[in-house]
Amino acid sequence: MNENIQKLELPEWLSTIAVFDTETTGLDLRGDRIVTASIQRMNTAGEILPGGKDWVINPGIPIPAIASSVHGYYDKDVADAPSAEVSIPEILDSINACFSEGIPVLAYNAAYDFTILHYEAKRYGLHPIEFGNVIDPLVIDKTIDKYRKGKRTLGAAAERYNVSLDNAHTAKDDAIAAGHVGLAMLRFFFAQDKPVVPFPTSAQELHDLQVKWSDAIEASYAKWRQTDVPDYKPVFGWPVKKFD
Questions:
Q1: Any residues with CB less than 8 A from the CB of 211 and at least 6 apart, and which?
Q2: Does residue 122 lie in a domain region?
Q3: 10 Å Cβ neighbour count for 18?
Q4: Considering the domain boundaries, does residue 236 fall inside one?
Q5: What is the mean pLDDT of residues 106-114?
Q6: Average of pLDDT values for 114-118?
Q7: pTM assigned to the model
Q8: Do 23 and 70 touch, CB atoms closer than 8 A?
């Protein structure tokens, strides 16, 4: 990315963000469990601020080998870790604290992390997150850079925006890398003379735009899937998928 873009000052409402990531037992948004999680605070320069926290959790179910091969945590590694019943409330409290302070929470593919967390909360009879504003670089990327070829993974986005990602699939490192990617992406968006849409004037406006963009992305994906699977049904909802 152009160095001049990298030095652009972002609006004041982006001066502090939180970054969030989870590693889990699998991809079933309603049934799988969180194994590790991280939430950190970051300023607009990408510097980590005090107040972050990391979790290693005993998810209460065996961790499938395929999941362990991705994030590196096996059953033996979490045998003595705090239970989900203890850790999930702490994660919810940390995220809600950010929102109550007016700090946007950034997560790459937010609908994955927040839907998993939503169903974890329900599993333990906890009140789900009371959302403030969320930033999802994946949704933004698919919208403002729609016709870019290649993968849309965090690793691909990190390469696109010259961000280091040394320990992929480690919750803290992924969260921080996603924050750097998101800030770089927003600078790229901010610098456009003729953006897809005008750059938002507040975190709330950006959040509301992403709700619409996510629905459009899901509808487009469903249309493509239905060419091979005619009864494929889209699952709308952002930052939490609406299964029920």
A1: 238
A2: yes
A3: 27
A4: no
A5: 98
A6: 98
A7: 0.94
A8: yes
